[in-house]
Design a protein that fits this description.
- Helices cover 40% and strands 11% of the residues.
- It has 3 domains: 96 residues, no CATH class; 62 residues; 123 residues, no CATH class.
- It is α+β, with helices and mostly antiparallel strands and 350 residues long.
- It starts with 5 loop residues before the first strand and ends with a helix.
- Helix 5 packs across helix 6.
């Protein structure tokens, strides 16, 4: 396997052009894209773009995320990577879309020079904005200087380019200014509605779906293992079965003071929101495509719970819900074991 077949800078040679060049040669391999501290991989199979993954997304979402890395570098490693395809659209259409997004971001970045800047409304109390569209007017209500551009996209569950585009319009109109440090008060943001039903953690009898070795089902008190109180615990995630087959375990609600402290800490909010994305990516790598929508719904529910002060329990409940829903949907027992083992490894690695 050869390293560094092609390498360069996004500023000097746009990545879509390089991918097009490599794809025309029918190459199989991987583009490693770096824009510190961000990393992404774009996989080609016989010249076709088949998969992409970053630290926060996979598939087309990860592919288009790279469009905002104008200062990034890339290198192409030739060789079969044996990945599961997640991208089926033709190269021409997605490369055209990536190029369009890069062109948009070049313009936007003249005002929004970094996703780490904090937008602040310049309107006086009670002043009504003029010349703004409904999305921009809604955005003006929450740009208090508390959230950065990237954090706004996360908590609003919208593509960062869309949020940046609206902020660009507000900046050009003088309705906002951008600062390099956090300020103001944390705004109240209404979480998008979720169609997912509440996940109910349940015990599993060993004769139904055995957990992998070292994958505890519950502690002696009947609750969850203490190691799962937050990502980074050394233990595993309880295996789950349909609620009709086992009795639910009472949940331990977070104390009001703890919830308030969690909601006031943007670092923790960002950490656990990012961890739900890692759970989503891990589950989708194991489960067939027909289960991916279920994973998306449970991730949306976990994000909503985090915004409500759910803390690390929301992350744990997301993992439990994915496992339970996979069993409910009739997933193969070996597949569920693999899923649980992967989720356990994810929690143990943090």
């Amino acid at each position: 396997m050869s390293q560094g077949l092609i390498q360069g800078s996004m500023r000097e040679a746009p990545l879509p052009d390089i991918i097009q060049l490599v794809s025309q040669g029918g190459k199989t391999g991987c583009f490693n894209v770096v824009d510190d501290p961000r990393r992404a991989k774009i996989y080609l199979k016989d010249g076709r773009i088949v998969h992409a993954v970053s630290s926060s997304a996979e598939g087309l979402d990860a592919f288009y995320e790279v469009a905002l890395w104008l200062d990034g570098t890339y290198s192409f490693e030739e060789g079969d990577q044996n990945v599961v395809p997640t991208i089926t659209k033709p190269n021409a259409s997605i490369l055209m879309e990536m190029g369009r997004r890069m062109d948009e971001w070049r313009v936007i970045s003249q005002k929004i020079t970094s996703l780490d800047l904090y937008p602040v409304s310049t309107l006086l109390p009670g002043e009504v904005p003029t010349g703004v569209n409904p999305r921009e007017a809604k955005l003006l209500l929450i740009v208090t200087g508390w959230y950065s551009v990237a954090e706004l996209a996360e908590v609003m569950q919208k593509p960062v380019l869309n949020v940046a585009k609206d902020l660009y319009g507000l900046a050009m109109g003088g309705q906002i200014t951008l600062r390099g440090v956090r300020s103001g008060k944390r705004p109240a943001i209404e979480a998008p509605p979720s169609e997912a039903t509440q996940a109910v953690p349940v015990l599993v009898e060993a004769t139904r779906t055995e957990a992998p070795q070292g994958f505890p089902l519950a502690d002696e008190s009947g609750g969850f293992p203490s190691s799962l109180a937050q990502p980074g615990g050394a233990g595993g995630i309880p295996v789950t079965v349909p609620a009709a087959q086992a009795a639910p375990i009472p949940q331990r609600p977070m104390a009001a003071s703890s919830a308030a402290a969690f909601m006031s800490d943007p670092v923790k909010m960002a950490k656990y929101t990012a961890f739900t994305q890692r759970i989503s990516i891990t589950a989708k790598q194991v489960l067939p495509a027909e289960h991916h929508e279920m994973v998306n719904r449970l991730q949306a529910k976990a994000t909503q719970a985090l915004l409500g002060g759910g803390g690390p329990d929301a992350v744990k409940e997301m993992a439990l819900g994915i496992s339970r829903s996979a069993v409910d949907a009739g997933a193969d027992a070996e597949l569920v074991k693999t899923l649980n083992a992967q989720l356990k490894a994810l929690f143990a690695s943090k």
